[in-house]
Amino acid sequence: MTLADNSFTINGLPLHPLLVHAVVVLLPLAAVGSIIIAVVPKWRRRYWLPVLVLAVLGIGAVPITQQAGEALYNTIKGSPPGLAHHRDLGNALLPYAIAFGVMLLLLLVVGRIADRERATGGVRARVASAAPRQQPVAPGVHSLEELDEETAATPGLVEEDGQSSSRFWGVITVIVAIAVIASAVAVSYEIFLIGDSGASAVWKGVGG
Description:
Blueprint lengths: L1 E2 L5 E2 L2 E2 H25 L1 H35 E2 L5 H9 L1 H38 L13 H64 L1
Helix pairs in contact: 1-2, 1-4, 1-5, 2-3, 2-4, 3-5, 4-5
């Protein structure tokens, strides 16, 4: 197995084996971090930025690594068995990575909305429960007792509305968190397959 003279190199080394480390390190780290913040909401609120940065860097490294790998593949004379399979797996990684990034970003957005609704729902409930009842008798109300019954129902409605909104966004957050975990596992497994096929192709080529 020899390299043609026009391969992409840096300091005499092919660029692809160097770039691939960015993908196999950053994306799995982002995947693990995303699973953690999906399972533990308080850690999501605290560590969302490092996880997002890892994901962006890892996803951004995928197309560059693919291009470098394609260039390297085209310049190898006498390709070892399995190298084409490794290339095909590598070219299929980007959709997995993008789906993972979209799910992670969606979790951060939906989780922030859920946190806000939970906080504002609690404020609404406290304000509603502390609101004084109006005492003047309104037109069409025959007694103070009847007015009390009508006005007493209003705080409960406000509190129930806030709780319903909070529950809704809480459920959405759980659904998106499950999608994040699934996409994180999928992209990590795809990276494992790519790395395994690449290592097998190289070692078979060396042995041959």
